């Protein structure tokens, strides 16, 4: 024998039910959920990079190595001796992208003078080399 719930016994609507129904069709993305970027989206312009261009070039070279590894790879260290910045990049899970692309998310760190910066993004490819399609500063929540 099952007993009716409190809401059935009192013939009232549970709190938040109307809000949940509205949220089901709400296109807003929360901070915990990231929509995949369109394949045509390019990484931010040089001024929008989370780290200086020369350091991003050094990190990106190691990122391409990590992405080329078919297995999920551990963090790969990178460094730029000219600036003194170093860090790691980690290629994460594979996902399907638009138009039959294979995509991988990545997470990176950059450290200089005891200060660290984190960034994340997504790289995709169909055939040939990987291309970074998203790059943004990563903030811990």
Task: Describe, in plain words, how this protein is organized in 3D.
- The chain has 141 residues and is α+β, with helices and mostly antiparallel strands.
- The protein has a domain of 92 residues.
- The chain is 21% helix and 33% strand.
- It contains three helices and five strands, in the order H-H-H-E-E-E-E-E.
- Strands 1-2-3-4-5 form a five-stranded antiparallel sheet.
- The longest helix has 16 residues.
- The chain is globular, with a radius of gyration of 21 Å.
- The N and C termini lie far apart (45 Å).
- 20% of the residues are buried.
Put simply, the count of helices is 3
Order of secondary-structure elements: HHHEEEEE
Question: Approximately how much beta-strand content do the residues carry?
Answer: 25-35%
The counted number of beta strands is 5
Rg result: 21 Å
Shape: globular
Helix content: 10-25%
Structural class computed from helices and strand pairing: alpha+beta
Distance between the termini: 45 Å
**Oligomeric status of the shown chains?**
single chain
| Main sheet specs | 5 strands, antiparallel
Whole-number mean pLDDT: 74
Widest sheet: strand order? Answer: 1-2-3-4-5
In short:
The chain has 141 residues and is of the alpha+beta class. The chain has three helices and five strands; from the N terminus they run H-H-H-E-E-E-E-E.
Topology:
Elements: H1 6-10, H2 17-24, H3 53-68, E1 76-80, E2 85-96, E3 102-112, E4 115-125, E5 131-137
Antiparallel strand pairs: 1-2, 2-3, 3-4, 4-5
């Amino acid at each position: 024998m099952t007993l009716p719930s409190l809401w059935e016994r009192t013939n009232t609507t549970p709190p938040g039910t109307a809000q949940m129904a509205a949220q089901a069709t709400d296109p807003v993305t929360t901070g915990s959920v990231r929509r995949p970027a369109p394949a045509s989206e390019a990484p931010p312009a040089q001024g929008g990079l989370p780290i200086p261009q020369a350091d991003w070039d050094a990190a990106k070279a190691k990122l391409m190595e990590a992405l080329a590894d078919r297995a999920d790879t551990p963090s790969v260290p990178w460094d730029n001796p000219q600036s003194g910045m170093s860090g790691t990049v980690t290629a994460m899970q594979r996902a399907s992208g638009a138009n039959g692309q294979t995509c991988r998310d990545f997470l990176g760190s950059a450290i200089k003078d005891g200060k660290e910066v984190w960034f994340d993004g997504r790289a995709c490819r169909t055939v040939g080399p990987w291309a970074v399609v998203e790059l943004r500063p990563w903030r811990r929540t």
